[in-house]
Specification:
Elements: E1 3-7, H1 13-24, E2 27-33, H2 37-49, E3 54-58, H3 64-77, E4 81-86, H4 102-127, E5 136-141, H5 145-148, H6 155-175, E6 180-187, H7 194-197, H8 203-207, H9 219-230, E7 241-244
Parallel strand pairs: 1-2, 1-4, 2-3, 4-5, 5-6, 6-7
Helix pairs in contact: 1-2, 1-9, 3-4, 4-6
The chain binds nicotinamide-adenine-dinucleotide.
Nicotinamide-adenine-dinucleotide (NAD) binds at residues 8-9, 11-15, 32, 34, 60-62, 87-90, 111, 115, 141, 143, 187, 189-190, 192-194, 197, 219.
Length: 248
């Protein structure tokens, strides 16, 4: 039987690339989306056309009750989960900290931090042998911003990703004895629509001079690392925060 993987925010960008590549590596994939069912179904159709197993599943990761429903749906439709990619995330428009509202910070942390933590909790409850599971692998999508700080753009986003790094370290230590590996990837400037969502459609082009490799990365290049971390090839890798940033 295929191993079951949930990718949050799987309908576009790094999440969609991860869903497709993971399916090629034999995972049965639950493609989570919050609002764009059509885009998620498109990813599912592509995977099925290639002979893989996938289904789409709706949940706003910032809403605990929706996340609980999503996990129950996956339990019933695909079977026991052994992989989770906490990919769903948002930026906000560029601003200085002095001009940011608490409302903005709540949204940022509810989605990027609480969403990932609730999904990780539900995954551990299924993967842990004490709950009848047989181990697994969790990959949190952090950001190079966690160490760069994103000054003048979104320090709040960087702080949220810093929280993800700390969560990765603590959870990895906590569940290592249960056969659950927990790692984070820290992408740099990657060509996806997230930059336009934050009002900076040319962000990669504008900042790529800061990248030692001289270019932005692709969603596929991040997905390669995520799928490796999920796999048995990474069987001794846990608690790692791995940059995929062209040296930036
Ligand atoms: P993207 O905007 O294309 O993808 C983000 C996905 O998350 C979208 O599908 C979106 O619908 C989903 N999402 C947002 N809020 C959600 C919610 N509340 N519930 C469920 N899904 C939700 O951007 P991307 O670049 O593919 O980003 C994926 C991850 O990579 C994010 O965590 C982002 O912070 C991180 N990242 C991206 C870059 C980059 O340069 N693109 C760099 C570092 C880190």
């Amino acid at each position: 039987m295929d191993k079951v993987l949930l990718v949050t925010g799987g309908s576009r960008g790094i999440g969609a690339a991860t869903c497709k590549l993971a399916a090629q590596h034999g995972w049965a994939v639950a493609v989570n989306y919050s609002a764009n069912a059509l885009a998620a179904d498109e990813v599912v159709r592509g995977i099925r056309a290639d002979g893989g197993r996938a289904m789409s599943v709706q949940a706003d990761v910032a809403d605990e009750s929706q996340v609980l429903r999503m996990f129950e749906h996956i339990d019933a439709k695909l079977g026991p989960l052994s992989g989770l990619v906490n990919n769903a995330g948002v930026v906000d428009v560029s601003a200085r900290v002095q001009d940011m509202s608490v409302q903005r910070w709540r949204r940022m942390f509810d989605i990027n931090v609480m969403g990932s933590m609730v999904c990780a909790r539900e995954a551990v409850r299924r993967m842990s042998p004490s709950h009848g599971g047989s181990g697994g692998s969790i990959v949190n999508v952090s950001s190079a911003a966690a160490r760069l700080g994103a000054p003048g753009q979104y320090v709040d986003y960087a702080a949220a990703k810093g929280a993800i790094d700390a969560f990765t370290i603590g959870l990895a230590k906590e569940v290592g004895p249960d056969g659950i590996r927990v790692n984070a990837v820290r992408p740099g400037l990657i060509e996806t629509d997230i930059h336009a969502s934050g009002g900076l459609p040319n962000r990669v082009r504008d900042l790529q001079h800061q990248v030692p490799m001289g270019r932005g990365g692709t969603a596929q290049e991040v997905a390669q690392l995520i799928v490796w971390l999920l796999s048995d090839a990474a069987s001794y890798t846990t608690m790692s925060l791995i940059d995929v940033s062209g040296g930036r």
